[in-house]
Amino acid sequence: MSGLILLNGKIYTMDGKFRVVEAVACLDSKIIALGKSDDMKNFKKKDFKIYDLRGKTVLPGFIDCHTHFLYFASTLDTLNLSGVKTFATLKSRIKEKLKNLKPGELLFVKGWDKNLFKDQSIFNKKTLDKISVQNPIAIFSKDQHTFWVNSIVLEMAEVDKKRKYFAPEKIEEDQKTKKPKGILREDATELILRLIKKVHQKKPKDLFEKAISIVHRNGIVGIHDLGGENTLANYQTFLSSGKLKLRVYVTIPQKNLDKALDLGMKTGFGNEFLKVGGVKLFADGALGSQTALTFEPYSGSENNYGIEVTSEKDLKILVKKANGSGIGVAIHAIGDRAVSQSLNALEKCGKKSLRNRIEHIQLVHPKDLKRFAQLKVIASVQPIHLTSDRDIAEKYWGKRCKFAYPYKTLLKNGATLVFGSDMPIEGFSPLKGIYSAVTRKKERERKDSWYPEQRISVKEAVYAYTLGAAYASGEERIKGSIELGKLADFVILSEDIFENSAEASRDFERILKTKVLATIFDGRIVFGFM
Questions:
Q1: Per-residue confidence (pLDDT) for residue 434, from 0 to 100
Q2: Could you give the CA distance from residue 388 to residue 386 in angstroms, rounded to a whole number?
Q3: Same domain, 211 and 194
Q4: How many other β-carbons are positioned within 10 Å of the β-carbon of residue 82?
Q5: pTM of the model
Q6: Which of 73, 111, 316, 350 could cross-link to 345 by cystine, CB 3.0-4.6 Å?
Q7: pLDDT value at 161 more than 90
């Protein structure tokens, strides 16, 4: 047995009364005492490790409600084009990486954002063929909804032969040759992902422990992984080997739903370290690829309404099948039409007793803003998106942005709002996520807040990363707040982000200066200490 005591701190419990205490004592993985530092005298006589916080702030450990964590882990050493804006830089980085590969070896690249490039005509197979005719090159977009590949990849994946199974807009065609151009979108990207998995992809275990240490440094103790078909099996392997030092809630891919039903699986199966979540469904694409499904066409286009990945009719069938057998759903829906159709499916075929949720919700039609609370649908959002995607949202959605990322309105209407990052698509620091939600500004920019009426309070933002996040996985009774009997998961901060960000002072920049000093998981220090 091991004990731990934190004294002389400012410990925000995040419980229903928003209590603040000085000290907390833990035995093994559970919290056994809360109160003033003097209240811990009896424990000091026993075999407890004691730490003086010297006034530092303690919060429940952060939970990231939307990650692709195993993908993040397995691609830590993958060439990343995030922030690259010119073809010259892109070409230089790819050429440098190719020096380490043998002829014929596939180069997988991530983080490409076409919206940063002025010349959009370069995105075709011929451009990449000029970089290399020996190595297959597959470039995944930042939002993971589009692939840009060279001719060798198209041949290896037999894209021309298989494109008859996909809608025309999902595999771009060269107008002259009528052959695949080298751009694949939405479910057509599976052709490339299968190829990469077959010839290139490393197993997640290679970099898994490194990835966990990175999120611990950011105060994260739990994640929801909305990954692929082998995700649960991989986590089970890590759990049995003792390497799973995170609390993981993992969704079921749509393609695995029938298998899960045959096995009798239900949402909530598992233990304090690993639980089965709902089935992940896709209603549409993404803003970055201009495939998010909208009621009105994208600005500058007469007929691009995005891509309907799953129709409302099929969503209803899938929701009924899953919910009817005790499995919740997590529906990816970014555009306002996709959000509306997802809500329709949940209203007609969903069960309110399950923690059904919609992911992203970047644009909402005004008529749908009250429906989240009415239908008890969790709004699972990523606050970092509202600042990183602001410019392209303005470009493609224009005045509709008044109803983009409408966090305050959702809360006012009684919705449960939970936060995540979409890692590795975006940065995953919860502190930066909190800053984004309470300021609706990019870091240290001088512009006014973007639709400031949608800003939320620091308390509301922290709740979305803690007790709200625990509610989303049905675990609010065992984690998400600092209360007796709950799991001993904490983050220690260098600043009091509540005090320094008082509504009256608007000193929100202090949040960005706040550092994670330590992270405690399962009653043990896993990062830092002071």
A1: 97
A2: 6
A3: no
A4: 14
A5: 0.89
A6: 316
A7: yes
